[in-house]
Q: What sequence folds into this?
């Protein structure tokens, strides 16, 4: 076991097949025994525009995208060309090469498509030459006419296959696993052409170059059977296994991924998917389906979730179980559609009128996406309130290797929660008119069992207005107080349930660490990697990944904060929203917290966390990385 | 065994079965047209042989939204303009339910207009009653989407510069397969139409003219109506889209000249309801989705079945 790693960056234009090519390459790596983590960077554009995907691979599980990278395959942006004339628009076609040089590590490899990228244009933009830069950084540059190879044996669009063949040659990989994977997904002429192109590029690199570089592919084997999937798959499969059989939504990046996966599979699972006119309808339909007895989910991203907020309150007031997903992207407003941010926490916790009475989870890994979506359904249906799963563009779109045992042991759960049978309805309390007392005051845990429309003797009225035990609108002060108190009781009961069944906070690092990091959601594993690096240099740091936002896991966080002298809250927003939540819940600990914030559209890299935390430890804010903002303790707490 | 014995239960019911212990007089003004909707809806349910346990009534907000308080059934008093999404999902979850949605002209044609368009387009098997009194009543008399041009109110003191919505043509263009207008002043016709609408296998849109005695004293709803089916002056084929459209145009114009024509304006038979369409194209199971939660023999496939594509 070594800490050797390959970080392969595939750069091109949107539409050049970056996503599919990188996924296939990642799968080949996984099948050869390695762990894989992918990171996507793309513009809000359909064709053209610089985009890249990174695949970081190691013999051990990969926690983050890492810092920089050591292998660039620059396809060039073929969509920067006018389809009508052979002219180029400006120099966009070279961006996938020139815009990626800053992060390439010394000693790294570059392959670029000299059929698309004109080296003179590159040198002109660089102000120096690529050759000089390469000499300075010990880069190994391999120009190859991928376009020519692709058109000779197939079609131009297969340039990416040629690039993969060249990559394999430079990493001394066998072509067999690539060929096997292609046979899984293609057939006929397309398969034939791709296989020929793969081999041609492989041979051309081998024949024409003397290969001498230090970038090697690590060696590894999996202890458990691995699968490669994204956080969106985790959420979608968690919903399926929780018995969700209804989804309604409106497309919005990045929520669309969860919506798409479930839309593809729900019919074969006995469910239904609805794409509707707007997010308001989507939320209303999930509520309607749930009211009628089906486990239902809806979701959106920031702006779409804003539209859902009035129905979020309706679900709370009518005590209708429902699960919403909020896949965050940069905000406010339409913000940055394809870039991650953790800026919607306050929105998710407090949106809609009145006091919040909901469950909010923020999973940090693909496994947690799966487990907490299931748990969100369990709690929503047991306690009859909305549960929200917050993810973000990073977590929803990143593909990672996980053991397949994350899923296989879990059977779907048909339990519809607290619903009375018709037999039980007969013995239940009714109003004189025959209405079932759906909102009677006395109930354990605040939960009065539901009945479903169509059940004999169970009819009741529910209302978005405050209502009395029979469901009728009431402004009676005593009724109001008792109903609010009863509904509120659910929060305590849920907290107890979570504490009993094992909470979802993840502690990482030595128990006796001097400094702490609090982190939530998608930044969790990046921070854990940073913790390892900090401890290698005796900085004595431990982290707590918090994934339960409401009800707040007070005892877990208190225990952690008690164990350290001071703590840094790492999150991807500019306002320190999670730190705000911690301070609101645990006021006394506020003066031990500072914030390390990043909000430029890119997630934290581990080195940024390392440097940022060191800046806190050494009390020298100027040491914090320029891509981040360190909010010192005193200034922040004087408000 | 079904978990929903009430559905299809053969049980003698009368209008009293649909009367809860809550008095509409609590919120509806004396002389309000809403009383007629309530009364005719109860009567129609009896004529349809329904019992209260198999009916889901979803309402919006406003005076009309309180209908669910005065009508005994499963009820969901939702929020302004949002009754339709809640109701139509219920038809997908459990197609055996008798689903009725109701709201006012502000609720249904204003804030909920987008949902109206798309619910009609999808042709969900349900009945939608819009209480149309051309005014915002519960918020004390503001101009509504159906108020005539020039209508003066506290929020439009110089008179509305907007043309009123034409609900019937809207419903037709959106794709509703049963469209009728009736009036509180004619409970006999209203009951007949409600029965037909509920019998209809698809989205039935009823523009129910009601009067607001408090805020819209000038409302034309007090004037006598003419039944387009009974009058020889208005011969048209209710199944012909073009003739129906022409009739609706004329009717909506006359409404604002003070003449009320009521009756069936369009009936499309034979088009499958949305649930049926989805079942036929394999997008929805044959059995009601809700039933599988209560069926011991239901097959619950794990998501692990999908993992091979990720290996």
A:
């Amino acid at each position: 076991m070594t800490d050797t790693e390959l970080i392969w960056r595939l750069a091109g234009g949107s539409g050049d097949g970056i996503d599919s090519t990188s996924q296939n390459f990642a799968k080949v790596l996984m099948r050869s025994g390695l762990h894989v983590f992918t990171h996507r960077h793309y513009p809000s554009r359909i064709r053209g525009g610089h985009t890249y995907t990174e695949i970081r691979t190691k013999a051990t599980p990969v926690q983050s995208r890492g810092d920089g990278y050591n292998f660039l395959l620059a396809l060039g942006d073929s969509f920067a060309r006018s389809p009508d004339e052979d002219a180029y628009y400006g120099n966009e076609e070279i961006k996938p090469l020139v815009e990626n040089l800053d992060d390439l590590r010394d000693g790294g490899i570059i392959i670029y498509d000299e059929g698309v990228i004109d080296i003179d244009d590159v040198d002109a933009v660089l102000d120096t030459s690529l050759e000089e830069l390469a000499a300075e950084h010990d880069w190994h540059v391999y120009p190859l006419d991928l376009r020519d190879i692709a058109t000779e044996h197939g079609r131009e669009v297969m340039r990416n296959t040629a690039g993969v063949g060249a990559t394999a040659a430079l990493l001394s990989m066998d072509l067999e696993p690539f060929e096997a994977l292609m046979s899984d997904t293609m057939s006929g002429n397309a398969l034939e052409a791709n296989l020929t192109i793969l081999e041609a590029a492989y041979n051309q690199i081998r024949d024409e170059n003397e290969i001498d570089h230090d970038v090697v592919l690590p060696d590894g084997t999996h202890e458990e059977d691995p699968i490669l999937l994204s956080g969106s798959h985790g959420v979608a499969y968690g919903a399926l296994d929780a018995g969700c059989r209804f989804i309604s939504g409106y497309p919005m990046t990045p929520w669309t991924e969860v919506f798409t996966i479930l839309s593809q599979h729900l019919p074969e699972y006995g469910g239904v998917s609805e794409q509707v006119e707007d997010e308001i309808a989507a939320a209303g339909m999930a509520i309607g389906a749930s009211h009628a007895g089906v486990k239902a989910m809806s979701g959106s991203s920031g702006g779409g979730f804003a539209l859902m907020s009035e129905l979020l309150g309706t679900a709370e007031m009518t005590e209708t179980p429902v699960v919403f997903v909020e896949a965050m992207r940069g905000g406010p407003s339409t913000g940055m559609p394809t870039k991650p941010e953790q800026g919607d926490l306050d929105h998710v916790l407090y949106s809609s009128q009145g006091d919040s009475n909901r469950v909010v989870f923020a999973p940090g890994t693909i496994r947690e996406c799966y487990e907490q979506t299931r748990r969100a359904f369990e709690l929503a249906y047991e306690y009859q309130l909305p549960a929200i799963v917050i993810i973000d563009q990073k977590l929803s779109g990143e593909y990672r290797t996980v053991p397949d045992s994350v899923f296989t042991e879990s059977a779907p759960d048909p339990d519809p929660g607290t619903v009375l049978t018709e037999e039980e309805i007969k013995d239940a309390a009714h109003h004189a008119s025959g209405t079932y007392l759906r909102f009677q005051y006395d109930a354990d845990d605040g939960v009065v069992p539901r009945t479903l429309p169509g059940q004999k003797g169970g009819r009741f009225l529910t209302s978005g207005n405050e209502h009395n035990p029979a469901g009728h609108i009431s402004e009676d002060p005593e009724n109001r107080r008792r109903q609010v108190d009863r509904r509120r009781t659910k929060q305590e009961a849920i907290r107890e349930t979570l504490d009993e069944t094992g909470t979802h906070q993840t502690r990482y690092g030595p128990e006796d660490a001097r400094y702490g990091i609090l982190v939530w959601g998608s930044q969790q594993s990046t921070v854990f990697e940073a913790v390892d690096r900090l401890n290698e240099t005796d900085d004595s740091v431990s982290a707590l990944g918090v994934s339960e936002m409401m009800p707040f896991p007070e005892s877990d966080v208190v225990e952690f904060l008690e164990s350290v002298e001071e703590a840094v809250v790492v999150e991807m927003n500019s306002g320190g929203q999670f730190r705000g939540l911690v301070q609101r819940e645990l006021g006394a600990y506020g003066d031990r917290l500072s914030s390390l914030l990043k909000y430029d559209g890119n997630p934290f890299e581990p080195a940024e966390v390392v440097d940022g935390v060191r800046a806190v430890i050494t009390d020298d804010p100027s040491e914090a990385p320029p891509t981040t903002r360190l909010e010192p303790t005193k200034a922040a707490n004087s408000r | 065994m079904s978990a929903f014995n009430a559905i299809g239960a053969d049980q003698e019911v009368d209008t009293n079965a649909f009367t809860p212990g809550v008095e509409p007089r609590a919120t509806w003004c004396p002389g309000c047209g809403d009383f007629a909707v309530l009364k005719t809806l109860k009567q129609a349910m009896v004529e349809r042989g329904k019992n209260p346990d198999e009916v889901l009534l979803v309402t919006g907000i406003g005076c009309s939204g309180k209908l669910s308080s005065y009508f005994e059934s499963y009820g969901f008093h939702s929020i302004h303009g949002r009754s339709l999404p809640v109701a139509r999902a219920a038809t997908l979850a459990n197609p055996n339910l008798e689903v009725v949605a109701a709201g006012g002209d502000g609720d249904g044609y204003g804030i909920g207009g987008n949902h109206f368009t798309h619910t009609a387009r999808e042709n969900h098997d349900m009945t939608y009653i819009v209480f149309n009194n051309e005014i915002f009543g519960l918020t004390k008399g503001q101009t509504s989407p159906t108020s005539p041009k020039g209508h003066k109110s506290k929020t439009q003191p110089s008179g509305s510069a907007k043309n009123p919505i034409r609900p019937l043509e809207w419903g037709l263009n959106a794709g509703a397969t049963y469209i009728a207008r009736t009036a509180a002043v004619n409970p006999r016709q209203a009951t007949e139409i409600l029965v037909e609408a509920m019998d209809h296998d698809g989205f039935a849109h009823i523009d129910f003219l009601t009067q607001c005695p408090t805020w819209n004293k000038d409302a034309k709803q007090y004037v006598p109506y003419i039944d387009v089916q009974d009058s020889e002056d208005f011969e048209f084929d209710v199944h012909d889209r073009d003739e129906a459209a022409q009739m609706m145009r004329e009717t909506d114009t006359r409404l604002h000249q003070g003449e009320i024509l009521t009756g069936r304006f369009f009936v499309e038979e034979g088009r499958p309801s949305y649930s049926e369409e989805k079942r036929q194209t394999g997008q929805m199971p044959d059995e009601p989705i809700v039933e599988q939660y209560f069926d011991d023999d239901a097959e619950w496939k794990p998501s692990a079945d999908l993992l091979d594509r990720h290996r």
The two ends of chain A are 50 Å apart (CA to CA). Chain A touches chain B through 82 residues (CB under 8 Å). Confidence is low (pLDDT under 50) at residues 634-639 of chain A.
